[in-house]
Design brief:
The chain has 442 residues and is α/β, with parallel strands linked by helices. 40% of the residues lie in helices and 21% in strands. The strands form 4 sheets. A 7-stranded mixed sheet has the order 1-2-6-5-3-4-7, sandwiched between helices. A 5-stranded mixed sheet has the order 9-8-10-11-12, sandwiched between helices. It is globular and about 65 Å long.
């Protein structure tokens, strides 16, 4: 697709993604969902500076097409999904570039079921963005905006209703990435009785994900060690991801979280027979370990939208990605970082065991990752030199290699999983050199 990747329309604010784009997306959604009725559209945003521009541009476009817009203000991506699904909205929009730094922004779209919009509708959006025309609403048909912070509060109450026990006695570190979770996460854990130590909770419009959050947990590791905390949780800018830090300061990625939750859900009977959905970049040790425990693993493309689709197809109740997008299908339709943190915290308390001990049965294979900035990643993958380097790298790694264009950033993502760290590093370097050489030749 031209504009929408694996997680929405994303780019440099007022560069690749402009307020005109946002206005036209709003125009399309307002018209598309107002056929024979007045559509209701929920809009949420994260804390980055440009989110205000895109919020009002989207609202202006949607109301100009005859829809009523319900503004959730600063909130999380999963809260938009929840509000759309439970309040009978026609669709939802989240303004966020997720884990990217503040200069980028994005537009994520949800259907009335709280699921990410399918490619059929996204293709229609793109056609309109490329020059389509739509009539404007007039007179009493023009839409209005509604302050709907109540929707965000209902989502908060929903989160509080999910844990089966209090979290009293648990010492927790929360890194909110100076993003959407900066108020919600602490409110939830405070209300459940945990003793909370906070990071990344002072957003100023430009510091989202900067030296903090799920992609940079170093500060959280230090906090956990300094205060001898039981566990730490790092979210990304829109809080649909969660990465954990155990009591020793060890990082537990989405694969580790899936292992922990799958085994727990298997024991309680919540997992059912649908197995677990992982992605092509999940550690192979996860699938092998779960399958030894009698749990089937299904593999799909990278992106929580694809994970959710595969879960619906297979009946799986749990799925996710190494990045920390974890979907608990019984209670949510998309990745939810705060929900994931609650689930892990409950398991730690229930088992009366440190997180590091609960993960003893899972030892991931060594992996190395590298991102190569490029605007033409797909073209580079067709380069003969790059293709030969990938083939050689697979032999060097002694495991597997995954090279793919990012669906959220203009980069080529390289992953090598090998017999040891040295082999994985050598394989990644071999591919990176070939890609850089191919870039220079273009």
């Amino acid at each position: 697709m031209k504009y929408f990747g694996t997680d929405g329309f994303r780019g440099r604010a007022n560069g690749a993604l402009t307020s005109i784009h946002a206005f036209r997306v709003g125009r399309f959604l307002g018209r598309y969902y107002s056929r024979g009725k007045r559509a209701r559209i929920a809009i949420g945003k994260d804390t980055r500076l440009s989110s205000y521009t895109f919020e009002y541009a989207l609202a202006a476009g949607a109301t100009a097409s005859g829809a009523d817009v319900y503004l959730l203000h600063v909130t999380t991506t999963p809260s938009v999904s929840y509000v759309v699904r439970t309040e009978g909205m026609d669709c939802g929009v989240m303004i966020s570039a997720s884990h990217n730094l503040f200069a980028d922004n994005g537009i994520k779209l949800f259907g009335g079921d709280g699921e990410k919009l399918g490619e059929d509708v996204l293709c229609e959006v793109e056609e309109y963005l490329d020059g389509g025309t739509l009539p404007l609403a007039t007179g009493a048909d023009i839409g209005r905006t509604v302050d709907f912070v109540a929707g965000r509060n209902r989502y908060l109450a929903y989160l509080l209703s999910l844990p089966k026990t209090s979290l009293r006695g648990l010492r927790v570190g929360l890194d909110c990435a100076n993003g959407s979770a900066w108020v919600l996460a602490k409110t939830v854990f405070d209300a459940l009785g945990a003793q909370v130590y906070l990071l990344g909770a002072a957003p100023n419009g430009t510091n989202i994900n900067a030296g903090c959050g799920s992609t940079d947990p170093a500060a959280l590791i230090e906090l956990v060690r300094l205060h001898s905390l039981d566990v730490g949780f790092a979210f990304d800018g829109d809080a649909d991801r969660c990465i954990c830090v155990d009591e020793r300061g060890g990082v537990v990625d989405g694969d580790g979280i899936l292992y922990l939750c799958a085994r727990e859900m298997q024991e309680t009977g919540e997992l059912g027979t649908g197995g677990v959905v992982t992605t092509i970049v999940s550690n192979l040790a996860l699938a092998r370990r779960l399958e030894r425990a009698g749990i089937v693993c299904h593999t799909t493309q990278v992106g929580d939208r694809y994970v959710a689709e595969e879960m619906a197809r297979t009946g799986a109740m749990l799925g996710g990605e190494p990045s920390g997008h974890i979907v608990f299908r019984k209670v949510a339709n998309t990745g939810d970082g705060i929900l994931t943190a609650l689930r892990v915290a409950e398991i730690v308390l229930k088992r009366k065991s440190p997180l590091s001990c609960l993960l003893r049965g899972y030892t991931p294979f060594p992996q190395r990752r590298r991102n190569v900035p490029c605007a033409n990643a797909a073209q580079l993958l067709e380069n003969e030199g790059v293709r030969r380097a990938i083939a050689r790298a697979e032999n060097v790694a002694g495991g597997r290699v995954v090279v793919r264009p990012s669906g959220t950033e203009p980069v080529l993502r390289i992953l090598a999983e090998g017999t040891d760290e040295g082999a994985a590093s050598e394989a990644v370097t071999l591919i990176e050199r070939a890609v850089l050489s191919a870039k220079e030749a273009l």
